[in-house]
Amino acid sequence: MAVPRAPLRLGRALRHRNYRLFFTGQGISLIGTWLTRFATVWMVYRLTHSGALLGLVAFFGQAPSSLIAPIAGVLVDRWDRHRVIVVTQIAAMLQSAALAFFAFTGLMTVWHLMILGAVQAVINAFDMPARQSFLGQMIEDKADLPNAIALNSSMVNSARLLGPIFAAELVAFFGEGWCFAIDAASYVAVIISLLLMRVPKKPAKRREGHVWHDMKEGWRYVTEAPLVRAVLLLLAVTSVLGGSYTTLLPLVAGSTLRGGPHTLGILMASAGCGALAGALYLAARSSVLGLGGVIARSTLGLGAALVALRFAPNVWIAAPLLFITGMSWMVQMGSTNTIIQTVVDTDKLGRVMSLYAVAFFSGMPVGALIEGWVADLVGPMNTFLLAGAAVCIAGLVYWRALPAIREASRPLYIRLGLIKAA
User: Fold this and answer.
1) Domain span at residue 276?
2) Could you tell me if 338 and 154 are in contact, meaning their C-beta atoms sit under 8 angstroms apart?
3) What is the C-alpha to C-alpha distance for residues 92 and 380, in angstroms, rounded to an integer?
4) Exposure pattern of 150-183 as b/e (b: 16+ CB <10 Å)?
5) Does residue 406 lie within any of the structural domains?
């Protein structure tokens, strides 16, 4: 049998028309998203020079998602996922337009950034489970689903690499308002791509149970699946301890390294480049098997890179360490996502993906709040040291439990046909 060439293997999910449309539209929109993220953190730093306020804005930009996501996951399993994504993209476009309005008129304050960030977090609470669970409807051949998940991550992190580079120039020469305006315009591409899709309408399943009953059913499903439970728990812990490292980068760029928006652009682009490398690694994999060990190694890599970042004397040392940090964090998140979408029953996928969103969105804002406060007390570099050491401990605990998790998950892998019974 001929072995597919690497480029074909990397992009095999693109042979599906709906996914090609999604990939193109989303790729354009995500660059705008990263323009807004860069402009937001730099504007907070420029207005306040406060680590605590950087953490507070990050908290408001993510925390509402963790509160709403469990309910959103239940509703996404009941609603038309394609329609939900169209609505969330229109709402996100209006939110970015509001940011642009306040920036151009000179009315923007930290409070505007907090409130509008919270609005985006509510939108994300519905968008993430809908988007992730909709992948299966765009991919006719389920063997291509892990590749589609990894290509999604590659797309996100390509934007994460390019967005800060463009944003640094826009902010330096024209101000933050143009970043928000371009982001608002970029949503047009993804909305058009969604409307052009030909998505077969599936008859909605009759749901007689209460929303709370369906939420409990999702929780019970996760607690009874050792592998899913373990990777979600580790993701939640890592999100708190290390996932919010980008919150402190404006302080590092502006105070520790004595730079400006260009320095912040280099640091964020380095992390984005590493994340892209991690996503391409996952795209090249052909099986979910072995991802449990990959998660353990990437968690330890994230912790070690954060510890080493404490001792970086300049941007040229910090940038490669942030490359490793971004790559490790991406591989852990992407591997967790792939495992969940591969092993979870389709009718519960929206609810389980909402718990993935909770692990991600509840951990990062709490971590940003804590680390922003700690950074004001001991400095951002010492904060990285403490966070990295804690991530390493979490990774070692998971690694030690991994053999038992694999043994408990063996019947599930056999049922799914991923491995053969002995």
Assistant:
1) 12-196+211-415
2) no
3) 31
4) bbbbbbbbbbbbbbbbbbbebbeeeebbbbbbbb
5) yes
8 A C-beta contact, residue 51 and residue 251: yes
Contact assessment for residue 61 and residue 120, using Cβ atoms and an 8 Å cutoff? yes
Residue from 148, 333, 129 nearest 231 by CA: 333
Summarised one tens digit per residue, pLDDT across range 367-413 is: 777 877 888 788 888 888 998 999 999 999 999 988 888 887 777 67
Segment 32-50 mean pLDDT: 84
In a domain, 422, yes or no: no
Asked whether residue 206 is assigned to any structural domain, the reply reads no
Domain with 398 in it: what CATH number? Answer: 1.20.1250.20
Inter-axis angle of helices 110-138 and 17-48, nearest 10: 160
Number of domains in the chain: 1
* DSSP string for 178-197: HHHHHHHHHHHHHHHHHHT-
Please state, in angstroms and rounded to a whole number, the distance separating the CA atoms of residues 418 and 421.
Answer: 10
In a domain, 225, yes or no: yes
- 173-230 per-position pLDDT tens digit: 888 889 999 999 988 888 988 888 877 665 555 555 566 666 666 677 777 777 888 8
Alpha helix segments (H runs only) across 61-109: 63-78, 81-104
- Residues 139, 13: Cα–Cα separation, whole Å: 7
